[in-house]
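Fold this sequence, please.
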Amino acid sequence: MNAEERKKLRDKLLQEKEKVQKRIHTLKDLTQPIAPENAIGRVSRMDAINNKSVNDAALRTAENKLKNIDEALRKIDNKDFGHCRRCGQPIAMGRLVVMPESSLCMRCAQR
């Protein structure tokens, strides 16, 4: 991977990090506890609890993605960045452009 490709990936990672941080902020607002004293009705309360569960799962996913992005940003200047952590082969540039936090090549990711 050359310096220009690394710069392109770093920029992509930083853009993605900003988007994920905004998403996390929004999801944290949506996952606030639902106070039992709110008079919203039984069915509405059940909907709110269900929506909170869905948003909790989305929040965990977003936080995990942010962790992976931060890890990729820490490792981007390492000589082995862009190589599969399982088989050691280079990860396709197309995969890194779409998912710059990828640490597995397509073949190993599908296993």
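The radius of gyration is 19 Å. The chain has a mean pLDDT of 87.
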